[in-house]
Design goal:
180 residues, alpha+beta, five-stranded mixed β-sheet, 55% helix, 14% strand, globular
Length: 180
């Protein structure tokens, strides 16, 4: 496992987009799953796909299953990361709170081509686990994050909770207008 590559930022959108949005989320957080399932696709279509927003997803795992899921997602090839995150949020109730979430995660990761050997090496990698936790702690301190999801817009404005698209529009649209 290339830990540096696994811990690299996971972003989408134009690097030169006028607005940046960072999401801090836990894969076992039902509010995070709600945002992913109900708002993210519309947000992506309106802002990311049009080059208006550069989006970064940051793991902020709040429990052991979330840490393991984040580790597995980061062991997949980077181009499959967002697909797996979306899948994990969509199926959260089937794996995150099951009696054997590790078996469910392992099965889910196979769907995107992760071998049993790579899965086992991934979840056993203490350097990766420590790196994820350290990044979470640093972000928590820097941005005073106390819940998930939390969104940081342009590095300064913090929004907590699973907001809907109109709430993002109220913040992002004026920033885009000011940047024209």
């Amino acid at each position: 496992i290339d830990v540096d590559a696994a811990l690299a930022p996971r972003t989408m959108g134009d690097e030169k987009a006028p607005v940046t949005v960072e999401e801090f989320a836990s894969l076992t957080c039902n509010h995070c799953a709600h945002f992913s399932k109900t708002t993210f696709d519309a947000f992506k279509a309106k802002y990311i796909d049009t080059g208006k927003v550069r989006f970064t997803y940051n793991d902020f795992p709040l429990n052991a299953p979330a840490i393991e899921a984040a580790m597995v997602a980061r062991c997949l090839p980077a181009e499959r990361y967002f697909q797996f995150i979306k899948f994990l949020f969509e199926t959260q109730d089937q794996w995150a709170f099951s009696q054997d979430c590790r078996a469910a995660l392992k099965q889910n990761s196979k769907l995107l081509g992760l071998s049993d050997e790579t899965y086992d090496a991934c979840v056993a990698n203490e350097k990766l686990k420590t790196g994820l936790v350290e990044k979470m702690q640093a972000a928590g301190t820097a941005h005073e994050i106390s819940s998930t999801p939390t969104f940081i817009i342009n590095g300064t404005e913090k929004i907590g909770g699973a907001r809907d698209l109109p709430e993002f529009e109220k913040i992002i649209d004026p920033l885009l207008e000011a940047n024209q």
